[in-house]
């Protein structure tokens, strides 16, 4: 950094932007069928640069249909149990407590919890707009409490998220 830039930056007054605190017992709770999503940051405090949520996935749960995102990155930090991540060509990663998974733009994926114990993960999205996908799904599920593949795919399409058709066929046993 050149001396003039350094001088200019060091002479700026300290900003007074507040931090945000979300206690462990709060956050917006969304029911996505039997999966619980606790929204921790919806982008309101980050100019929509990042959002985050905690998911509780009951034992024996399949996740959303296999898909890929055209416009956002996701990260997953498993905080309890084991989450199975599915990728193309039958690749599986069983991420245990403390394991971290990054899903960049255009990486086909899905997750499940085929195990006998509940699992949880912390999830981030950048940009933040994707958190609205979960809010819409929760609203749609209020009518019947069911989270169908069709509902998921319908709402995904509104957020530049595409079905990973070869994976869907592979996972259903069809080629």
From TrEMBL:
InterPro entries: Cupin_2 (IPR013096), QDO-like (IPR053146), RmlC-like_jellyroll (IPR014710), RmlC_Cupin_sf (IPR011051)
Cupin type-2 domain ranges (all copies): 54-124
Pfam families: Cupin_2 (PF07883)
PANTHER family: PUTATIVE (AFU_ORTHOLOGUE AFUA_8G07350)-RELATED (PTHR36440:SF1)
Protein name: RmlC-like cupin
